[in-house]
Amino acid sequence: MEGKLAGRAALVTGASRGIGRAIAVELARLGANVAINYARHREEAMDVAAEIERMGCDAMVIQADVGQRAEDEVMVRSVLEEFGRLDILVNNAAYSVRKPLLEMDPADMERTWAVSLWGAFHCSQFAARLMAERGGGSILMVSSVHASRPYPNCSAYNGAKAAMNQMALTWAVELAPHKIRVNVLEPGWTDTPGERVYYSEDQIVEKGKDLLLGRLATSEEVAKTAAFLVSDDASYVTGAVLRVDGGYAITH
């Protein structure tokens, strides 16, 4: 398949639904072969793979808990074995427990950080080692406006995303000699299945009207920016933190 990412191989974590799914599909639309990581939603991950294959690209589905380093090592190795290369890593998998500090259990913090922070570290380290051997690549962190805004009852997630940003900027410096670009994408309030855990459909619509652009972002809008950052269109972009939040962070 022709496209800006033709011949490239990408791994997207947490790609069975929401933003991760949209990114996987968008990368395939641009010609990339895509490995779809999931932890629990196998049927949805298979649907993503089928959609990618209908576009004429190769897809593989990998179950792995990104919070487990051994599983991440096997996952990255599997991508290399299947596609013969790994050019793009998108660290999208996330987990969040929303509780006030006075009620939070250490396990809530540990699980949130295992997926949202340590998972990004493990996957990035294994992927970067392969990319360094091959002469380059692109790593993208799907962070959040929570990285810089202290939203209450989200200390675990806020802290994980802030640390993710700082790691990414550090790696952008360290990996530049290896021609590996590292960037950060900060979505704002996005219309995803995960939001239905906290809000009803009517609440999402009504609360969206109060946002600067009058609605939540779509996953596809976030995905298009992600695709830009990992493509050669952004060949001189590294160490960047780009918000796709419709002005959410400046008004909330």
TrEMBL record:
<dbReference type="InterPro" id="IPR036291">
    <property type="entry name" value="NAD(P)-bd_dom_sf"/>
</dbReference>
<dbReference type="Pfam" id="PF13561">
    <property type="entry name" value="adh_short_C2"/>
</dbReference>
<dbReference type="InterPro" id="IPR020904">
    <property type="entry name" value="Sc_DH/Rdtase_CS"/>
</dbReference>
<dbReference type="InterPro" id="IPR057326">
    <property type="entry name" value="KR_dom"/>
</dbReference>
<dbReference type="InterPro" id="IPR002347">
    <property type="entry name" value="SDR_fam"/>
</dbReference>
<feature type="domain" description="Ketoreductase">
    <location>
        <begin position="8"/>
        <end position="192"/>
    </location>
</feature>
<comment type="similarity">
    <text>Belongs to the short-chain dehydrogenases/reductases (SDR) family.</text>
</comment>
<keyword id="KW-0560">Oxidoreductase</keyword>
<dbReference type="GO" id="GO:0016491">
    <property type="term" value="F:oxidoreductase activity"/>
</dbReference>
<protein>
    <submittedName>
        <fullName>SDR family oxidoreductase</fullName>
    </submittedName>
</protein>
